[in-house]
């Protein structure tokens, strides 16, 4: 883009004229329309955080595209917005969860926990009959229930206990009309269903007799609460024993003698998750083994796939080879297959007694590919090699084809042999181009959960450990297990997030160091 | 300068709003309705039901009947059965969850501990169900699910290969060997992860249930699978593994395929297998016990849960208690999934099929799978240990079993 054209466009925006400005105005109008729609939706849903973020982004977008001072931002703002939403926010949220006790037993907010405790502890009075029930409305709009008890119709509301209504009409067991009350039809009941389900009509003036409630607006039952919540004091009281439960720091109601109610809520717990992550000595032994294997797996995966990919790329880059395009297409096939599917297929093929590898290729040998610790590690690396080499093949082919021919010519004139040319020219130049991708491949394989989960599930298990971890588990699959996400322990998202952050730091530090090292390579070119 | 930005932004926003306004009569209003999920239900009443693929059509039929009568919109959302448990736990607190979901009874402990389900008052209808199905969904005196199917495993016999039902485990192995098929009998495992669910009847016959049971059939979190009885079972597993009667390499698919091909007269499995055996002449018998006590498999009960955060609790309860508990609905679910119905009337009708009757008879002697949350910590140790004993990887079955018991105790804390 020439300086002159840029200036011209700029001048146009300053005077509110020109076709460019009109296009910009329309595009921004579209963005604003979307944004305002989002803001309104967030407003109605009561999501204040989203609302604030939307407003901020919207204001930023309008400012950036209508000011003259923010030219670079005009280019990077869309990317920046997506980075914020999809990366920074996710990491930030994970960081937040790491400091809470979100998990089994602390699954939601305090209000929901209180609701759940109350609803779980409202019991039907033993031996009380099912009462045919009709929802009625008083003259001033209060809802009430008309029930048939012992053959007689009684009507009441939340404030007025059940009272006899001798003039009511009953047909087929259901009350169809009560003088002074409007009988609500099904549609009307459904429209006010929240009110109907929360309505409690006392049986008598004595609260101990319980109250009538209904779940389907057809049949009522007499219920008696076991737990009562005192909003002012923020305490739960057991009506039968009189024990008072108060909220504790762990996000549960606790009685004076340390007994807790089952449903808790999310609270922040500081560094407790990090302490748990490294404090459980059952995990100490397996952790070291798994850490070493994770590094070995990630490094070996990168090295083997790169070696094979580069070798094949060089072979297929030789102009003397015929049908290179066909071969190249075939090479890409493993890359085109979903990784989890391939891993599953391989786990079937490597089955000791019935797998294709043992049965067909090896003539019925019983080689424990996935059940012997070392063979399982080899299998994991082998399958990952199969899955990963096409990617390396692709990037190496691309890099090789862009290598300058004159350097090779110079090498030839200097009398360098093939090996020397490869070592001193091809390899360094190739690494300059591919090093960042190798680092990202390392980071990917460090967290290659899909492969491990689908191929071996981490197995075979450590015989000497007391936790369900195995020889091919990597850190991320260990996190999955430790935090109970696989169902083998109570779920603990807080712990999982804390461990994920630790892994994030490890991978981040290694990548940063590696990128620093690659700068030296760049000096070559 | 600043003013021009403001002006331009205002212009852009006005333009946008005008554009919206222009489309108001047709597009605008419908978009508004769609963007506001809370407004729609209160206006007409609607219901979201999570259901797995197998049962989708059956629930759809009942939903249509309900829609026709009540005018309520029922939205059926198909989910993978394996995903429902975790998704329900995660989404109910956010308000994004369904009003009703299908589920298994052994999720109950976790669901109540996290406060995501609410009790259902079945009232007098509770008596219409097979007792174990309601018991399975009962916790602390409250019923949390509407049961629709009971499932358990039994011994499926190919009558062409074995005319008589075996009385004991040894009889079964002998009959299997006499039939001169590739396998004397088939029981599935899952590689080195094992399959303690399918092996459980063998274990109970040695008197080693997983947890201590209360008088009312519920479990308390005290391990019972250790001790002499458990060790006897472990020893037996080791012996049978060495003899080749049990193998961890027989996966579900392999077992079903081999039985369908007539490679064995017996397979231990559930009604979900029967579809693959349509060409065979079958009988369903109690599982023969290798120990002194009866071989009791686990009973699993399938049912519907109501979300604790449902804004349509009234509709949800009405739909479940009054529409899904009918004989037609339960029979439709049975025909879709092949699991015997939980409603007595529908179960009686289904029992006209001798195979269904066979499973039901075995189920009557079975024990419910524990629904306490502690069960989660047991599975992963249990299966792997059984597999390592059967495969011979663990040299000393008793030692391996004892280590398993102490590991589970460690995990339970």
UniProtKB/TrEMBL annotation, chain A:
Stated name of the protein: Maltose/maltodextrin transport system permease protein
Principal localisation: membrane
Source organism phylogeny: Bacteria, Bacillati, Actinomycetota, Actinomycetes, Micrococcales
Superkingdom per UniProt: Bacteria
Family: Belongs to the binding-protein-dependent transport system permease family. MalFG subfamily.
Pfam families membership: BPD_transp_1, TM_PBP2_N
Known role: Part of the ABC transporter complex MalEFGK involved in maltose/maltodextrin import. Probably responsible for the translocation of the substrate across the membrane.
Record organism: Isoptericola peretonis
Keyword annotations: Cell membrane, Membrane, Sugar transport, Transmembrane, Transmembrane helix, Transport
Transmembrane segments: 21-42, 48-66, 75-99, 290-314, 326-346, 378-400, 421-444, 493-515
Places the protein is found: Cell membrane
Topology versus the membrane: Multi-pass membrane protein
Keyword Cell wall biogenesis/degradation: no
Record-annotated ABC transmembrane type-1 domain positions: 291-514
UniProtKB/TrEMBL annotation, chain B:
Signal peptide positions on this chain: 1-21
Renumbered residue ranges of the record's region Disordered: 22-45
InterPro entries: Maltose/Cyclodextrin-bd (IPR006060), SBP (IPR006059)
Keyword list, A-Z: Signal, Sugar transport, Transport
CDD domains, per the entry: PBP2_Maltose_binding_like (cd13586)
Pfam families: SBP_bac_8
Gene3D superfamilies: Periplasmic binding protein-like II
SUPFAM superfamilies named in the record: Periplasmic binding protein-like II
Family recorded in the similarity comment: Belongs to the bacterial solute-binding protein 1 family.
Name of the protein described by the UniProt record: Maltose ABC transporter substrate-binding protein
């Amino acid at each position: 883009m020439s300086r002159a054209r840029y200036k011209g466009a700029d001048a146009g925006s300053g005077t509110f004229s020109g076709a460019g400005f009109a296009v910009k105005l329309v595009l921004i109008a579209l963005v604003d329309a979307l944004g305002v729609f989002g803001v309104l939706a967030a407003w109605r849903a009561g999501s204040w955080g989203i609302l604030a973020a939307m407003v901020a982004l919207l204001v930023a977008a309008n400012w950036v595209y209508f000011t003259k001072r923010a030219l670079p931002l005009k280019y990077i703002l869309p990317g920046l917005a997506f980075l914020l939403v999809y990366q920074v926010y996710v990491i930030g949220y994970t960081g937040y969860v790491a400091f809470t006790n979100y998990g089994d037993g602390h699954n939601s907010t305090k209000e929901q926990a209180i609701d759940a405790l109350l609803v779980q502890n409202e019991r039907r009075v033993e031996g009380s009959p099912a009462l045919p029930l009709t929802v009625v409305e008083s003259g001033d709009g209060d809802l009430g229930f008309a029930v048939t008890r012992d053959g007689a119709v009684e009507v009441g509301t939340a404030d007025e206990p059940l009272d006899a209504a001798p003039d009511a009409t009953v047909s087929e067991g259901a009350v169809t009309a009560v003088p002074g009350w409007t009988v609500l039809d099904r549609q009307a009941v459904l429209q006010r269903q929240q009110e109907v389900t929360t309505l409690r009509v006392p049986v008598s003036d004595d609260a101990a007799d319980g109250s009538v409630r209904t779940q389907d607006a057809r049949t009522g039952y007499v219920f008696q609460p076991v737990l009562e919540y005192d909003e002012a004091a923020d305490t739960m009281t057991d009506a039968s024993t009189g024990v008072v439960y108060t909220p504790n720091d762990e996000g549960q109601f606790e009685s004076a003698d340390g007994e807790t109610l089952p449903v808790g809520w999310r609270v922040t717990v500081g560094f407790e998750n990090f302490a748990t992550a490294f404090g459980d000595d059952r995990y100490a032994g397996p952790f070291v083994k798994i850490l070493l294997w994770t590094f070995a797996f990630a490094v070996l995966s990168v090295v083997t796939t790169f070696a094979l990919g580069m070798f094949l790329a060089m072979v297929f880059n030789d102009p003397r080879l015929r049908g290179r395009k066909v071969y190249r297409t075939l090479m890409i096939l493993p890359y085109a297959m979903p990784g989890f599917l391939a891993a599953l297929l391989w786990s079937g093929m490597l089955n000791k007694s019935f797998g294709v590898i043992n049965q067909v290729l090896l003539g019925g040998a019983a080689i424990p590919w996935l059940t012997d610790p070392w063979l399982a590690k080899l299998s994991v690396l082998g399958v990952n090699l199969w899955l990963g080499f096409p990617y390396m093949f692709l990037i190496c082919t691309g890099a090789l084809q862009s290598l300058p021919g004159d350097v090779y010519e110079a090498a030839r004139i200097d009398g360098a042999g093939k090996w020397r040319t490869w070592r001193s020219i091809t390899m360094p130049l190739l690494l300059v181009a591919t090093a960042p991708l190798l680092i990202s491949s390392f980071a990917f394989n460090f967290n290659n959960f899909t492969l491990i989960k689908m191929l071996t599930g981490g197995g075979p298990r450590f015989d000497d450990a007391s936790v369900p971890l195995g020889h091919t588990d990597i850190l991320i699959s260990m996190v999955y297990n430790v935090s109970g996400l696989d169902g083998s322990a109570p779920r603990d998202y807080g712990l999982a997030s804390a461990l994920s952050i630790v892994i994030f730091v490890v991978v981040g530090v290694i990548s940063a160091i590696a990128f620093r090292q690659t700068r030296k390579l760049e000096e070559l070119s | 300068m600043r003013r021009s930005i403001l002006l331009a932004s205002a212009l852009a926003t006005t333009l946008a709003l005008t554009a919206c306004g222009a489309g108001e009569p047709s597009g605008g209003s419908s978009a508004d309705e769609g963007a506001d999920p809370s407004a729609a239900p209160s206006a007409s009443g609607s219901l979201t039901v999570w259901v797995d693929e197998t049962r989708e059509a059956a629930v759809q039929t009942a939903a249509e009947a309900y829609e026709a009568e009540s005018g309520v919109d029922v939205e059926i959302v198909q989910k993978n059965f394996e995903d429902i448990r975790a998704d329900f736990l995660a989404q109910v607190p956010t308000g994004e969850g369904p009003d009703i979901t299908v589920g298994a009874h052994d999720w109950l402990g976790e669901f109540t501990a996290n406060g995501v389900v609410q009790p259902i008052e079945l009232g007098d209808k509770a008596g219409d169900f097979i007792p174990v199905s309601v018991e399975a969904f009962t916790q602390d005196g409250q019923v949390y699910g509407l049961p629709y199917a009971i499932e358990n495993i039994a011994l499926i016999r190919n009558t062409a290969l074995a005319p008589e039902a075996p009385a004991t485990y040894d009889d079964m192995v002998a009959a299997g060997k006499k039939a001169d098929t590739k396998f004397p009998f088939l029981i599935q495992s899952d590689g080195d992860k094992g399959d303690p669910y399918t092996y459980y009847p063998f274990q109970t016959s040695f008197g080693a249930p997983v947890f201590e049971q209360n008088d009312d059939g519920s479990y308390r979190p005290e391990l019972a699978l250790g001790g002499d009885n458990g060790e006897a079972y472990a020893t037996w597993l080791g012996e049978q593994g060495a003899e080749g009667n049990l193998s961890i390499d027989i996966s579900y698919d392999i077992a079903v395929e081999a039985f369908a091909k007539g490679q064995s007269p017996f397979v231990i499995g559930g009604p979900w297998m029967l579809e693959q055996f349509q060409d065979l002449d079958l009988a369903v018998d109690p599982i023969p016990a290798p120990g002194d006590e009866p071989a009791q498999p686990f009973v699993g009960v399938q049912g519907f849960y109501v979300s604790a955060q449902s804004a349509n609790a009234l509709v949800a309860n009405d739909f479940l208690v009054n529409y899904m508990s009918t004989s037609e609905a339960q029979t439709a679910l049975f025909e879709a999934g092949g699991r015997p119905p939980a409603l007595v009337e529908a179960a009686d009708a289904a029992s006209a099929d001798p195979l269904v009757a066979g499973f039901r008879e075995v189920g009557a002697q079975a024990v419910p799978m524990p629904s306490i949350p502690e069960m989660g910590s047991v599975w992963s140790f249990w299966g792997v240990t059984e597999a390592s004993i059967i495969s011979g990887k663990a040299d000393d079955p008793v030692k391996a079993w004892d280590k398993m018991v102490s590991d589970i105790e460690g995990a339970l804390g």
